[in-house]
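Action item from last week, closing it out:
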Amino acid sequence: MFEEDFFVDFFIEEITPASSRNAERKLRCVAEGLIFAPKQLAMNLISFLREALQSFVSLFFPRCCPVCGLPLGRGEECLCTLCNINLPRTDLHLQPDNRMERLFWGKFPLERASAYFYYRKSSAYRFLIHRLKYGGQKESGLILGRQYAAELLPSGFFTGIDILIPLPLHPKKQRSRGYNQSEWLARGISEKTDIPIDTEIVSRIKHTDTQTRKSVSERWENMEGVFALRKPEACVNKHVLIIDDVLTTGATVTACASALATVEGVRVSVLTIALRDG
């Protein structure tokens, strides 16, 4: 018994600060149960312990809403409930010939297009995109993709779409960032829709400077010859959905879609998380 009691004391001392007496008592009960419980209860106790530890850690290192800065509660993944309610949704999927689709008229054959919310420089919601693109928090892309797909599903937006194509980054930029944010958005969408992702159909063969500070004409010039087809046969007679994070002038998406449009029978739709507004 001495060795078992010593293990429990050591376990509690290692993971629990002395200042949290309630959490210590709770974890002591769990630890003792883990040692003495029958094997069939072990998994339940481990699960309970994991949840208790997560709750305890969140007291000192809370996950915060990127918009308002308040700690996220149970069940809140990316945004707090209030900020999610107030998200400036575009609802473009409910509007035929919407403003986003009109950006692409005359540039390539488009089936449909939509964006989750409006991106405004003066809005705190811009931090959702900043965290995804520059903050290293790729998991937020997965969450946003799932959320938006769940909201779009009842409208039939995904009906007939065969392949998800995340807008590719140049290998140099992807190595620098560590991931492609559009691919993480696509993963979240795929989880909800069961539509497969293909990252090999089209590639970015030309490294370009950031588009952020360029004029409209410079953005279009910057996109010439940027994308090339690697596996065109995979999208013959298919309906593909290009996925990106933010749409501004549409130059980058148009360059990618124009390359895809050369494939026989291909149909192209576009989906982004944000649409630049103003």
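Closing note: The chain has a mean pLDDT of 83.
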